[in-house]
Amino acid sequence: MMLGLLWLIPSLPAAGFVVLVLGGRRLSRRGAAVVGAGSVGLAALVTLLVAASFIASPPPGDAYRQVLWTWFDVAGLKPQIAFYLDAMSLIFVLVITFVGFLIHLYSTEHMERDEGFTRFFVYMDLFVASMLVLVLADNLLLLYVGWEGVGLCSYLLISYWQKDVENVYAGRKAFVITRVGDTALIVGLFLLFTQLHTLEIQPLMQSAAANWAAGSGFAVAAAALLLGGAVAKSAQLPLQTWLPDAMAGPSPVSALIHAATMVTAGVYLIARTHVLYELAPDVRLTVAIVGTATLLYAGFSALAQHDIKRVLAYSTISQIGYMFLALGVSGWEAAVFHFMTHAFFKALLFLGAGVIIEALADEHDIFRMGGLRRQMPTVFWIFAVGAAALAALPFVTAGFYSKDLIIATSLGSVDGSVWLYLGALAGAFVTALYAFRLVFIVFFGEQHTPVTRRPGWRERLPLYVLGVLSVVGGLVWMPGWLGGFHPLESFLGTALPPTELGGSAFAESAGAALLTIVIVLVGIEIAYLLWLRWQAATARFAAQPVPRAIQAFWLHGWGFDWLYERVFVRPVKWFARIARGDLVEPAVGGIAWLNLRAWRALSASQNGLLRTYLTVAGVGIVLVLAIVVLR
Amino acid sequence: MASVPYSYGLLLAAVLFGIGFAGLLVRRNLIVVLACIEIMLNAAGLAFVVAGARWGRPDGQVMFLFVLAMAAAEVAVGLAIAIRFRQTLRSLDVDDADEMRG
Q: Which site among A603, A607, A609, A614 would you substitute to test the B interface, given the most B Cβ atoms closer than 10 Å to its Cβ?
């Protein structure tokens, strides 16, 4: 029974982490790379065995539970170190280990000349282990351990180049903002435990469904608190401001943590606890609205960026917005599908961006790139495949199938509405626009910066594999009007409930898909006209006052940072400043003063002279004897 | 045979012990300090012997033999310390060994 190997999957990267921490100094760079990437590669192989076994002979109940040991047992809280594997967690584990391994392989070359090479793999391995714990956890407490673990690694890797203080600030910002959501999440766990007396996910969900009526206060509160955690982790409105700054980290980090895996933890959490959201229709609607608002917000922001990685960061926020939209309209499976395809093409885009940045001697500004099509043809084609998948180019890309499914679900689901549908369509248009703006500006036109380095095989291989996956990854779930070949849907159906259809019947028709296709193609065509054909005219138009103001507004992420600086950061700093002279300060200081005095007095008695000690001891003995005798 | 009253013996032991202890406190020469310790040990031994005579039992004298053996060992260790002391600090003044002050 291969399923018994499940525990090895998170343990292997964890073992790699331990080896690198303890023996990293003694290992050569090659050794560190072998341990760092190899442990994840082994985990991927074990995952393959487990997945083959899971699919070939599904365990009873279509879920496999492996209890390792009891964590602790206090006052009725008895969490176990246990893993739970069902169709959904299997998809997540497959993506994490395989995409994770490809990115590790890429990193062995990309980070080659970096002085902290071993430290990088220490963090990366810890991240992969934590992420696997997160998606395999059988109870919410263990999930929370993984949740905090990935948050820590995200912080460490954003600030990886810690000699530049800006990077450290970016890491701190990510940590503090996600902490807001983490607090909501842990309060949610407290609420669930006090009300339902367990944190084990499956019994918890059954208990919630049995004890709480739909729309009841507890269900709404629990779902909303969990949503708070998900929103911060997945960089959705209004806690999205940390992700663009998180691009301070190395490109493989952006690809692995801030695109493919960690930022989708919120999606996983909501899909995993979908019962709560089924009980709380209002919160579900909130999820859909947050998703739609975010995908539009981030799409427009991406249009104005000129740092290649920030374009991709905003596009990640936007694509996760699509996943949230899907979750909000009960399209649980569609969200997981889009997670999978997004992991492929967004990791590809980030790794491609890493190659370009490396080739141009650390140039991030897309307007200083240009004309790379002839200089780096393979990178161009691979990047174009990724951008096409992001833009959902019809039929030939994975992104098309998953995004089209979400767009259709936003109208066709019983929770769907025309407004969400229109938002999703507008988002698809903007996505096509900014994805191909990137391609046209970076790869066409005049060359501004010379190419100084070309990628080796360890960078190219992951790009090719991800490129292939970005094309064929969507074929596992084709819409009904294309023959309806959908093994992924049937597979995920063993773990997640199907979307209840009942909205507009138009959504499922070929006509709706045609509308999506036309909108995407028009978007690409307009991108072509604006940034290639009539490039000069666009530049002239953009230089006028009103377009410039709008651009600046979008460039700075609609002023959220500006707003938060004034609403939260400055008042807190001001309060800290005025609170310096309050009553607490002298009280705390007094304790320190008293201790200092007492220490000086006692210290003076230790003069090191044997005769003094003897005298004191003699006097003491005489006194004790006198008391005993004369009493 | 006229016997000395036991209280005289005990008084002598107390005086000897007091002299030894006072010497320990006021003298700074390490050799004298060791000698003072010897005096105190002998005072204790005398008290044992007197007490043994008081109850007519041999235990007190047996105990004095132990005290003698221990005193021999103590002198061996004490003199070794004195030699090391002299080598390290170039003096025999116990007050020079005050490095462990707070």
A: A609
**Residue-wise DSSP of A283-315:** HHHHHHHHHHHHHHHHHHHHHH--BHHHHHHHH
Judging contacts by C-beta atoms under 8 Å, the chain A residues touching residue B25 are 611, 614-615, 618
pLDDT average, residue stretch A566-594: 86
Q: Which of residues 1-30 of B touch A (CB under 8 A)?
A: 21, 24-26, 28
Three-state SS string over A82-106 comes to EEEEEHHHHHHHHHHHHHHHHHHHH
Chain A 577-616, residues with CB within 8 Å of chain B CB atoms? 602-611, 614-615
A379 close to A463: Cβ distance less than 8 angstroms: yes
Please name the residues between 78 and 137 in chain A that touch chain B, using a CB distance below 8 Å.
Answer: none
Per-residue confidence (pLDDT) for residue A473, from 0 to 100 = 83
The whole-model pTM stands at 0.79
- State whether B95 and A609 contact (CB < 8 Å): yes
Asked if B102 lies within 8 A of A610 by C-beta distance, the reply is no
**Domain residue spans of chain A:** 2-542, 582-630
Strands (DSSP E) contained in A549-593 are none
Taking CB atoms and an 8 Å cutoff, what residues of chain A touch B95?
609-611
Q: What structural domains does chain B harbor?
A: 6-90 (1.10.287.3510)
Please choose, from the candidates A92, A146, A97, the residue with its C-alpha nearest in 3D space to the C-alpha of residue A336: A92
Contact A43, A12 (CB under 8 A): yes
Q: Which long-range contacts (CB under 8 A, 24 or more apart) does B50-59 make?
A: B50/B6, B50/B9, B50/B10, B50/B13, B53/B6, B53/B9, B54/B6
Q: Which amino acid is at A284?
A: R
List CB contacts of A39: < 8 A, sequence separation 6 or more.
A12, A13, A15, A16, A17, A19, A125
Question: ipTM score here?
Answer: 0.81
For residue A266 the two structure tokens come to 């919120």
pLDDT for position B1: 46
- The nearest alpha carbon in chain B to A601 belongs to B102
Spatial separation of the C-alpha atoms in residues A489 and A507, rounded to whole Å: 18
Chain A residues with beta carbon closer than 8 angstroms to that of B40: none
Which residues on A lie below 8 Å from B99 (Cβ)? 608
Three-state DSSP at A70 gives strand
**Closest to B95 (Cβ–Cβ): which among A606, A611, A618?**
A611
Cα(B30)–Cα(B14) distance, integer angstroms: 23
Q: Least CA distance to A609: which residue of chain B?
A: B98
pLDDT value at residue B102:
63
Average pLDDT over residues B36-61: 91
Kindly report, residue by residue over A417-469, the tens digit of the pLDDT.
Answer: 888 888 998 999 999 999 998 898 888 888 888 888 888 888 889 999 999 99
